[in-house]
Structures are given as structure tokens and as C-alpha cells.
Amino acid sequence: MSEIIFPPDFAWGAGTAAYQIEGGWQADGKGPSIWDTFCHEEGRVFGEQNGDVACNSYELWEKDLECIQQLGLTHYRLSFSWARLLPHGTTQHVNQKGVQYYNKVIDDLLACNVSPMVTLYHFDLPQALQDQGGWKSPSTAGLFDSYARFCFQTFGDRVKLWITINEPYVCAKLGNEDGIHAPGLREKGTAAYLVGHNMLRGHAMAWHSYDSLYRPQQKGAVSLAINSDWIEPLDPGREADVAAAERDLAFTLGWFAWPVFVTGDYPEIMRSAIDAQSAKLKHSGESRLPRFSEDDPTILGTADFFALNHYTSRKATAGGDCEETLCMKSDRNVEEVVDSSWPICGVSWLAVVPSGLRKLLKYIKDTFHNPAVYITENGFSQVGPLQIEDVHRCQFYKDTILEVAKAIEEDGVDVRGYFAWSLMDNFEWADGFSVRFGLFHVDFSDAELSRTVYRSGKEYAKIIAKYTSGQSK
Fold it and tell me: Which helix (H) or strand (E) holds 121?
């Protein structure tokens, strides 16, 4: 393509999440979340690290705002800590200090002409609700809806872009199947499907609440953030590998996108595989994948845009020797591999494949009825010795943003925005502080937690300046 063109109102953003940056885990009346509990248990996180302080954004918000302004962002994606606003998880007790904090963040952003995109739930369920069954309990969906309505009522006059739940796949699988994220459950082949089901119910309830009660006055948009790798067959000429890639996408992206954008129910390929495996293993006479009931909210159509978190690509082949056991891997019956020609970025799971994002965007357009798309997370990690001059990450952003432009110009994908992950180095879940995704480096050995822009941050700022000033390449 001869020139790169982005729409004049394209959202140029970066993202963070409350538990990963805020700290202040007991400050000013905040209640504990499942990540507070998880990190305080021995052996859960790299180096026994935790988010008790993290980037201390609860006290150093003005420093974060300076970073946002230095990049020239038009949008900033943040998440609310449910337990900071509602310490016990319900609206029976509202923590006004938490309300004040997020009011200040939102007002400061708007004063700097930065639009907030707010995520209501980014992995950190109040521990009080986990004690009552967490996302495995059907009642949590209704409690989430109540929390969402509180947030729409309190902040929705200024917030116009909402994400209900971030990466329900990760919450379900890593938190309830693999046990490597909070709440740390390893209930193979059962809990993840139940958790995912209740998250979809909670999301749909919140979307309907916004649509009926708040949209007419607030005129915002609501979705959920779905994470997906790009998956292609290991051998495109082998029918089993083509089927494996299709099945893999159905069990990841399709698990949550299909009910919301296509049919109101799970992909048939997923349903049939789980039903068959459940019957084969004689699991209590019924499928482990729940069914939506007439009492559940309508799931289909409960997204005003497609929010995509994307990091890497994989190749899929038929699973072969999967154990006959209750687990998601044997339901899916797929093995994933990384092409040896793809460079690995920092962590073992993250292969650098910018072209995979373009292919995935085209797939979303073709499969999910050409929705408006916000790329709500995309980034490049760094491990080991600190490299402020992170030239590889600079190239990653250049190459990736070029692929997004191609998706818009050549493939006709309606991409509305791009959010880099993340604004600054932070607590990277089970990896603690050992993995760095930031556009700004945070020195966690410094009591002041100083922020220093990476070269990639400067490069991203140049890209933003070029396209927000109407220039083209």
C-alpha cells in the first residue's frame, strides 16, 4: 500500500488494569479481591511477589497522567477495582473513597482531552463473593449486573466506552481449570465452562441494563473484551489440521463471540465435542457445557462493538494422544505449536507475528457480521536485563500498526481504535514483575517508583502524533 491512512477519529490508546497498577490494596476502605488472596498464598506467583503496592497508581495517579500526556493518547483504558468501590461486592456498602478516586481519574483524563475506556471486571472478583461461590455461582451474574448499574449510574455521564468483562476465557481456564490465576482452582473440565457461562450471563445482564436504563441519556457503547490468538493449520493440506484449527478457534474466540455475535449460543462444534466427550466418560449423564435457559437474558446482540485482545499466533494440529479425562484439552483435542520462523518475544508463549493480527481481523469481519472493532490489548514483552532502548519492540509496533492499516484499507475491516498493552510496566499476574510490557519502565526497586519512557514509547508517541495531526506516510 502506498500510504497509511487511519480514520480521523481513530482511538489511539494504551491500557492498564486496577490490580496490576493501583496498589493500595487495603487503603481507604478497599475490600480484598481474589488476587489479593491468591498472591498472599505461598508458591502462587513468581518470586512470591504481589500487587500490594505495584505501581502505586492509587497515590501516584498524576504520574500516570503525565505518561498518558507524554504519549499523546486520545484514549486510555483502565479498569475499576470492584472491591475498591464495593468492598463486600454488593451495593449495600459503597466505599466513597473509591468513588472519589475514579471520579478524579476520569475528570483528569477528560480535562486533558483523553477519553476513558473503562473495564468493570479485569480478573479481580471481591473475595467476599468468591467466598459465596464466585463465578461458579449463578447468583454472581446478578451481583455483577448490580455493580455494573452502580458504575453506569455513577460514572456513565462521562464514560462513553465500557468493557464489562475482560478475557472471560482467561478467567475461566487459567483461574478455574489450570489454577495458575486467581482463584487458583483446578477443577478439570467442569468449573471453566460454568464460570464462562455465568460470565456471559452477567455480561448480557449488564448490557441490557445499560441499553434500557442508561443508553438513552448517556449514549455510550458496551462490549466485553475477548482474547484470541490467530490460529491456522500446521499443514493446510491436511484435513485433520484444518479441522483442528477451526476447532481451536471455536473453543477460544468462538466460546464467547459466537453467543454474542452469531447465534446466542455456543458454537455447534464446541457443543458437540463436549457433549460427546461427556457421554464417553459418563459424566453424570449430562453435558458439562451448560445451556442457556428461558430465564437467562438474551445473549445475542449484547455488544456494541467487538473488543479484541490479541498477542500472538499459533498453528494447530489434531491432538492425537489426548488422555481420556475430564479436561478442556481433551474436549478440544488440539495441539498448538509455534512456527520456528516466528521470533519469540520475551515469554515462551508470545511469538511475534504482526500479520496474524490482520488475518484475525479479517476473520472477525467475515465471521461476526463485520462489527466495529477496537483492538483493546496488543503488546510486546521484555524479560531479563532492562532495555530502555527496546528496538525490537519499536519495530513490533511499527509492523503491527501497518498490519492494522492494511486490515482497514485493503480488507475493509471497521477498526475504530488500537490500545497498546500497556501504559507502563506492572504486576503481570503469575509472572509478577519479571515480565515487562510497558511503554514506560517502572523502577520497582525505587521507593518513588519512577516512570521512564522506553524508546518504544517515544516511537508510539510519534506514530500517534503523525495520524492525529492528519498526516499520512
Answer: strand 115-121
